[in-house]
Amino acid sequence: MTTLDTRPIHDEVPGNYLTFRRGLLSWLLTLDHKRIGVMYLIAVLGSFFVGGVMALLVRTKLLWPGEVSWMTADQYNKAFTLHGAIMVFLVIIPSIPGALGNFVLPIMLGAKDVAFPRLNLFSFYLWILGAACAVYSLLAGGFDTGWTFYTPYSSQFGAGGTIPVLVGVFILGFSSIFTGVNFIVTIHKLRPPGMTWFRMPLFLWALYATAVIQVLATPVLGITVAMLVIERAFNIGIFDPAMGGDPVLFQHFFWFYSHPAVYIMILPGMGIISEIIAVHSHRHIFGFRFIAFSSIAIAIFSFLVWGHHMFTSGQSPLMNVLFSAITFSVAIPSAVKVFNWLATLYKGSISLNTAMWYGLSFIFLFTIGGLTGIPLAVLSTDIHLHDTYFVVAHFHYVMMGSALIAMIGGMHHWWPKMFGVMFNETWGKIACALVFIGFNMTFFTQFMLGSQGMPRRYYLYQPEFQIYHHISTGGSYIMGLGFLITAIYLIHSLFAGKKAPANPWGGASLEWQCTSPPPHDNFSTTPRVGDCYDFSAVSWDEKQQGYVVDTEAHVAAAQHGKGH
Amino acid sequence: MTHLITTILMQSSSDPALAAGEGPTPKTFWLPEGASTFAETNDWVFNFINYINYFFFFLVVGLMFYFVWKYRQKGREVYARGPSHNTVLELGWTIIPTIIVVVIFFIGFRGFVSMKTVPANAYQIDVTALRYGWVFKYPNGATSDDLYVPAGKPVKLVMRSEDVLHSLYIRDFRVKQDVVPGRYTTMWFQADHPTGKTESGEDAFHHLFCTEFCGVGHSNMNRKVYVLNETDFSEWVVEQGRWLDKIPEAELYSKAGPKLFARCVGCHTLDGKAGTGPSWGNYDGSGNIWERTSAANSAHKVDGKSISELIGPGKKYENPESYLRASILNPNDHIVEGYGPAMPTFRGQLNDKAIDALIGMMRHLDEFDAKGNFVGKK
After folding, report:
1. What is the β-pairing status of strands B123-130 and B155-161?
2. A330 at interface of B, judged by CB pairs closer than 8 A
3. Of residues B64, B90, B108, nearest to A360 (C-beta)
4. CA of B99 to nearest chain A CA: how many angstroms apart?
């Protein structure tokens, strides 16, 4: 039985969530959303490392157009498949909701935890179980189908680890669904008094939209991989035409999930960018409602466009035309967000912290990623570009250049909050610059490779493409170096970093009003809520070496409708 | 109404008169050589979108850098009083991009309609895709591994797959279509300019790639496309239909064997290394393919038992030739130990004479090098 802590929240709290209880078991059996968030962070970053090594192996092979002695075609196929599957299912989909969302969402709501803490921990262990299946599949012969598992290759051929990894994907799906359910209920039920939907931080709007997709779309993936396992294991014809099935049906099922999944990956990233841009510009976000509703619009439209992955699949031309037309509807809310972020910079007071460097990198890379989606959505040009490196470059700009860059930006934004330490800003900016330069070298060349006609998933290629591959591989090494530096200075900060103030960047949302790191219960009393994008009551405090929010003035401003 | 619009769009974009240029459009920074009637219109669309993209990219990134520099934080000042919304502006940047993408959609739609409307007089070539090769079959029954098409004439490909998904992509023609087992897919194109010779005197060609992942040989599944003028093409196709007949019986295995083996090389090696299928060479110490099927006490195992239980007088196959022939026509009846049922049937693709040539090659495997070239008796 804990006694009610009545000390004001701005005072030094002796304990925090990291020191609240000690020992390995206190972590493994924790119901604290913050600790679960940290465990997700470690797990996701570990997977990111493995997926990244696979990517570097693939890129290194592609330095040579012919065969190489150290990697056969079969190993190459397994390496790019592993890279794709890890990055999609183990890294990007759980990264922002699982790690950062878990940590920040309840604090942003002024709540003590998510609505269902046990379900939250269960989600994490489902992730572990799914990852274990993927590891087991490697021992069982690996898998070489590409992360898309297209039939009948995956059901009739495919390496021995195909079924275990499909089971893993099935389990990971449930991990994702449970996180989504948890976030939806938490946002509906645990908002503090005064936090209306339109006073809620945009990161939470984004997580909410994401959670809706997770809950509605992921079951379709589960059903699809279950049917594929049944076909492969028991020879029951669902997708294989030799047994009366239809391989194009699989593609419909698969993309019915996997297109919305693209937005499961990018929407939380967009939410983070809304936070980073507003906080580091110290300026009210521009067009709150447009950004909030564009997240919902994206979530809805994302269900209606899956067929644009299938313009050459043999589906009817009429469907191609319809899907192409609807696809453009997704472009609009994305463009609206970019323009709103730009307008937020206008007349701001912009501090160029590492997190902001990542925020600006996101705008740059997402603009390229979004615009290059247009020739892929246009029917006549997609016929040429489909299944070439152009597609590879496009989705890396969106999945990595946007979603993952946002995740890393968010990690820097909330790092002082999560661990109570400041990292080295200079090294942060050097690493960000290396990642940005390396990324563009790696993937911009791939646009040219693709539009020049180099197909994807090729072990051997025509010598005319070699120069592009050399630049691309060189870029990937620079990017790898950037991530390595990031890992070093972040880990270093945990042991030797300067103590972080409660509010190092000048944010006004609730997570900046509890200590860094937050105490076990986040807030001792239900906090009072102002407008989280109203920075009029934020000022620099020399003693704390951080910003402070004058809560009275902040709440009063919101009540009088000021700060807009 | 829709029909009317479609008709008008089609007429304006698939007008053959448009096609008559001086030669293929040259390779540019973004795009490869354009050698079909689609290339010109589709490249125009691609470049049009690119210019719009350049504009918006430089607008967004330019404004971003300008604002970041102009409104950088001075000291510890935090509260910046910028506007928090502006409905006219926000509606503006919602509506203007909407109009632009609607226009872009219609331009792409127009090109797509002509790509999907096969002209009635198109020359039909039947295509079979199999791991890891293509068989192109012409109206007179001739077949080839590379694609030959007549210049200045619409060509229609009717395609099916023997095994998994493949996708036929001729980048210089800007066409691509998945090849799906269990159904027929079609595509058409018209290439107006014969490929001719390169400067060094070799036959010039366009690349044909498989663009749907199909296994270890996926990146090997590329072939050449030759465009011949109409006279050359009709001569070629007649010759091609007869090529096997013109080879004397005695030279069948040495001349036709290597050509036919090109269809097998994706899965079967000659040097003993295991591929998707067993090597024809001496791969597990039990001799080359002829030796292990004909030897009385072969160690070679098929369906879990010795192969000699299958072959011989009074057994299922009278002689090795019958077994090998059955293995080409009904490959999955007997599975060699260590392999799966991966081989497609060649029934209807190889006639008796072609099978004779391949079996002849197996019998004289020591007269071929590791790549399947005939080198004669050692």
Report:
1. parallel
2. no
3. B64
4. 10
Rounded distance between C-alpha atoms, residue A454 and residue A389, angstroms: 6
Contact A80, A148 (CB under 8 A): no
Place of tokens 């046990």: A118
Burial of A136 (0-12, 13-18, 19+ CB in 10 A): middle
**Residues B207-225, buried b or exposed e (16+ Cβ, 10 A)?**
bbbbbbbbbbbbbbbbbeb
Q: Is B71 within 8 Å of A344 when comparing Cβ atoms?
A: no
Contact assignment for A350 to B71 by CB distance below 8 Å: yes
CB B192 within 8 A of CB B17: no
| A293 close to B (CB below 8 A) | no
The A residues from 540 to 559 touching B (CB cutoff 8 Å) are 540, 547
**Residue among A550, A422, A427, A390 nearest A498 (CA):** A422
Domain B249-367, what fold?
Cytochrome Bc1 Complex; Chain D, domain 2 (1.10.760)
Nearest CA in chain A to B45: A381
Instruction: Enumerate the residues of chain A whose CB falls inside 8 A of the CB of residue B273.
Output: none
Domain with CATH 2.60.40.420 in chain B: 123-242
Q: Where in chain B is the domain with CATH 1.10.760.10?
A: 249-367
Residue-wise burial string across B138-174, b where 16 or more C-beta atoms lie within 10 A, e elsewhere:
beeebbbeebbbbbbbbbbbbbbbbbbbbbbbbbbbb
The pTM score is 0.86
B96 contact A CB<8A: no
Q: Rounded to an integer, what is the distance from CA A20 to the centroid of its chain?
A: 29
Cα separation, A295 vs A277, whole angstroms:
17
Q: Which residues of B touch A393 (CB under 8 A)?
A: none
Residue-level pLDDT, tens digit, chain A, 564 residues: 344 545 444 444 457 898 888 888 989 999 999 999 999 999 999 999 999 999 999 999 999 999 999 999 999 999 999 999 999 999 999 999 999 999 999 999 999 999 999 999 999 999 999 999 999 999 999 999 999 999 899 998 888 899 999 999 999 999 999 999 999 999 999 999 889 999 999 999 999 999 999 999 999 999 999 999 999 999 898 998 888 899 999 999 999 999 999 999 999 999 999 999 999 999 999 999 999 999 999 999 999 999 999 999 989 999 999 999 999 988 899 999 999 999 999 999 999 999 999 999 999 999 999 999 999 999 999 999 999 999 999 999 999 999 999 999 999 999 999 999 999 999 999 999 999 999 999 999 999 999 999 999 999 999 999 999 999 999 999 999 999 999 999 999 999 999 999 999 999 999 999 998 999 999 988 888 889 999 988 989 888 889 999 888 888 888 876 444
Nearest to A314 among B108, B180, B340 (CB): B180
CATH number given to B123-242: 2.60.40.420
